[in-house]
Amino acid sequence: MERLITLGFSPHRIETLPLAEKLMKEHDIIILEEPYNELFFSFLENKISLETYVENNDFWFPNFVKSTSLILKNLYNQGKKIFQIEPYLERILLIQNKLAEGQTPEEILQDSKLKEVYHIENRAIGKLLDYYKTSLENDFSKIIEAVKVFSKADAERFRLRDKLRAKAILKILPERGKVYVEAGTIHIYLKKLLHIYLGKQWKIRHKFLLEDYFKPLTGKSWIFPPGELLTLRYILKRKEDPQTENLLAARSLIYIKIIPKEELVPSEKELFPHANKELKAIQMVNKLSFNECATLYKELFFIKDPDKAKKVVKNFLKHQKINP
Fold it and tell me: Whole-prediction pTM value?
């Protein structure tokens, strides 16, 4: 029996689920990218209903969770072993609970397992707040620097998340078998760590679940938006390149204004609504120079509706005689 780990890189979107299900069926063990939740296993074991599970949790994408849970229950009934492994987020939840119970930060920092997570999370949140404050100023260069500083702090958070998760995965691996590891697309470092820890004993491969959608259109397995590309540079500790980093930061500010935030449901006419909109948005902002982003940032600042923001960018590109 072989030793195989497959990382399924995918955003948490309903449109990815048929592809994820197909891949998970080929494996004996499924490791989900989420903190342990007792109610989830109660649902798998028919102790509670799906509605009870969803209602008793605060999910960002409830439709995704419902669809995923039904798929996983079917796989569980087929004998697949399912684990929820995301130690970083588990520790964040524990810290939040301790604070809610009245413990002080000083008391929490006495716990060595929580100390590093507390410091890194606190720093990332602080840099994010700094960015929000700076974004109100009329100095685009300062805003870009704030984006980069936050992105570096965010990268440290991702590095620790992936490190903790990789080590937790090591602890539950069987002697042999086929293991599917769910991972967001930005968690490239997780694969590198698994190669370092297990490369001589296990075959480790990856699959971008939306590869069959992106490759015919772009020639690539996945297209990262500019903000993720910037963060990935810091996660992977690429050689600093201020010009590239400034441009990615500038484009990220436009991208987040034109991308829809709501959960989109696939249809027969559009099987990949998120991927379609994200690809078009990435292609659009990738046509913008740093100075053009600075100009657009001012125009888009008070626009909340992504569709309205996208129209502004399209009109700008047309005015610049660039095909949007």
Answer: 0.93
